Amino acid sequence: MKTKTLPFLFSLTFASYAAMSQSPYSQDRVYTANQVSNTVSVIDPSQNKLLGEIVLGKPFTNVLSPLYKGQALVHGLRHFQPKKLLAVVSIGSNSVTLISTENNKVLKTIYVGRAPHEPTFTPDGKQLWISVRGEAYISVIDVSKMQEVKRVPVADGPGMVSFTQDGKLAYVCSSFTPQVDIINTASFEVVKRIAVTSPFSPNIFTSPDGKWIAMTHKDSGKITVLSTKTMDVSKVVESGAVTNHVTFSVVNNTLLMLATVGAENKVKIYDAQRDFTLIKTIEVGALPHGLWPSPDGKLLYVGLEFEDKVQAIDLQKMQVTSTIQIGQSPQALVYAGHAVTDTENREGLKMLSDTAATQVVMLKSLVKGDKASGRLSVRSIGLADLVEQNFSALKPGRSYTLALSRSTKAPYTADYEINSFKADDSGKYSGQSTGLVNTLTGSTDTQSYLHILLIDNSEKKTILLDNLFNG
User: Fold this and answer.
1) Of 452, 458, 449, 395, which Cα lies nearest the Cα of 427?
2) CATH (domain of 101)
3) Same domain (yes/no): 372, 325
4) Of the chain's two ends, which shows fewer C-beta atoms within 10 Å, N or C?
5) pLDDT in tens, 333-379
C-alpha cells in the first residue's frame, strides 16, 4: 500500500506546486470587440500577450456586399464567469453571439432588432439584456434556452443596461434621449424615468458596493453619477470630450471611478469617497474606448480604438506597463476572471491577420488661438485604406472637405478628396471613409501627396493641416 501511495502523493504535491507557481492571472483573459476586423482579441493578462483572435466575420470592407454568413461591426462584450460565457454584440448583423471562454467555441448566434449595442447579464446569469439601439426596446435573452423571450419598451436608442446588485432593477441609458429608464426586472415595467444632462450615453456601470451607477455622455464630455438609494442624479462630472466608457474599482480599499476620455487620450480616475474628485490622469494611446479592471483592483486594461492596441495599467503605480497589438478598431473591452481552466488551450483562436501599424494623424489649426482640431486613424483594409475621422471646435453647420495635397506650402490645393461632411450643431464630426491614403503619403514619388488638410468650403480656404511633413 505504501509503495502505491507514494507516487500518488508525489503527483498531488507536484500538481499543488505547479498551481502555486502559476501567476494569479493565468486563468484570466482580457477580451476586446474589434469593429473593423470583426474579431474578438484574446489576451493573457499574466503575460500581457495576445493569444489569438476569435474570428466572427470578414473584415471591413468585405462586409459591404450581401452578408449571408458571419458577423459585422463586432462591438459589445460581457462575460459571465460562473458559466464561462462571453456575449458578443455585432451592430451591423443585428446579433449577439454566445462563446465558451474555455475553448473559444461559438455556442450560438441569436439575431435581435436593428443595431444592438451592448449586452449585460443579470446578476444571476439567467438572462442577457441587449440594448437594441436602432430601435426602442431591450431584447431579453433566456441564457439556458439561448433565445429571445421578451422585448421591453424603453426610450428611443437604448445604449446599455446596468443592474442593481440584487438584480431587481435595471438602469437603461439612451444614445438618443436625455433620459435613464429604471425597469422592474420582475414585471419588465418602467418604474421611473430620470432626466439627464445630454442624450448620447453609450455606457453605464454599477459600482462594486452597489451604491452608484455611472453613465458617460460622449456628446457633452460628462459623467452622470446616479444614487441607487435615491434613484436620482447625485453628481455630474465634467470629464472631457469623447468620454467613452466608465467603470469602478476598489484600489487600496478606496472606491474609484475610472473613465476613458477619447479626445484627450487619457484615463481619468475619480475618488468616489471624496465626492468623485479627480485624483489622477493617466496618458494613454490614441482614442481610448473600452476599459475594465481586474477583480483585485491591481490592473486596468484599456482598448485604443485608433491604434489597434490594448494598454495595461498598474493601478498601484498608476502608470502604463504594457502595450499589446490586437485586432482592428477595439470597442468594448472586458476583463474575465477565471475564464479558462486549461491555461495552455488555444483551440478556436487564429493568429492576428493584420499586424500593419495604424497611422494616427493630427490636424491642427492654421489660425493662432483657434481651437479647431482633427484626428485621423488610417489603417490598411486590403487594397484600400480606412480613414476614421474625429473633428471638434469647427463652425456648426459648416461644410468641410478633407483632402490630400501635393502642395509644399500655402495656398494648398485639394488634389485628392477623402471626404466631404457637415459639422453638427456643436461643431463636431465623426465618420469614416475609404481611399488610397496611407500608401500614397509614404511614397518617394515626386508626385506623392505631401499633406492632409481640411478645407472650409464656405470660405474656400485651408483651416487645418497635418503634422506629417515639414511643407
Assistant:
1) 395
2) 2.130.10.10
3) no
4) N
5) 999 999 999 999 999 999 987 666 678 888 999 988 899 999 888 88
